[in-house]
Amino acid sequence: MSKAKHFTREYVREEVLPTAFCPGCYNGVVMNALALAFKELGVRGLRNYVFVSGIGCSSWIPSPYIKADSVHTLHGRAVAVATGIKLVRPDLNVVVIAGDGDLAAIGGNHLIHAARRNMDLIVIMVNNLVYGMTRGQQSPTTPHGKVTLTTPYGNFEMPFDIAGLLTHTNANYVARWCVSNFTQLKESIKEVLTKYSRGFRFIEVWAPCITYVVRYEGKTPGEKLKEMREVCVPVSKYEGLSGEEKVKYVAVGVFKKEDKPGFIELYREYVARAGGAHNE
């Protein structure tokens, strides 16, 4: 209990607790993984961090709960605003935390072009598989066949594999974990803060909405976690499955690790070349 109170005081605004999340919501797991990553890295205070979020349940994680500067911006515009902040203050660690509706739907264009530019951002997409804040409509990542408010007979569309898409961009780091992979998620966050600390770094967290996915399935949060321990399999195992089998599982792991110069470094070099050419 004392340890829990320790990093609550250090990284979370106690004055706004308890959170507004639904009972059992996995957003708390993501917050805990982030806090524990900071703790294990010896981060004392978040003065060198700024968090950016859009609109959605997971966008509430940084604002108002994380004890740091944050910008709660328009729906779908978190990556665009974060890009502006990083250009103006390249000394800061800029972290985007938002949901699949915010990043994969209305903000999808900003997401893929930030990855193309290898913009120096950390983006954590909490994928709850629906539009949770607006009562569970189908989102771009809703699994095929899933019953939602707008697909009462099952989703007939195929979902977007966002991590798979970004693996084929210029991004430096792309990973996906389920909330049942707590230790791997925490270690992945530590990696993008230390060893892979430049360029575009993306972590997808598979965290089904408790109210509009888990309860629709007639399950408890605990039962869903146990299910994810079986369903979320390492990408090496996933690639060996047949097409029919793959539909039943979620591939998790780090799909891409590179350490190329990020946009900020390349932009500075470009400005220096432009200045030299102008002075000739």
Quickly list its features.
280 residues; alpha/beta; Rossmann fold; eight-stranded mixed sheet; two-stranded antiparallel ribbon; globular; disordered N terminus
Describe what this molecule looks like in 3D.
This protein is α/β, with parallel strands linked by helices. It has one domain (32-236, 243-279): Rossmann fold (3-Layer(aba) Sandwich). The chain contains 13 helices and ten strands. The protein has helices at residues 2-11, 27-40, 61-65, 78-88, 100-106, 108-117, 162-167, 182-193, 210-214, 221-231, 235-238, 243-246, 263-279; strands spanning 49-53, 69-72, 93-99, 122-127, 130-131, 137-138, 173-178, 201-206, 232-234, 250-257. An eight-stranded mixed sheet has the order 2-1-3-4-8-7-10-9, sandwiched between helices. A two-stranded antiparallel ribbon has the order 5-6. Helix 8 (182-193) links the parallel strand 7 and strand 8. Helix 5 packs across helix 6. The relative contact order is 0.13. The model is unreliable at 1-7 (pLDDT under 50).
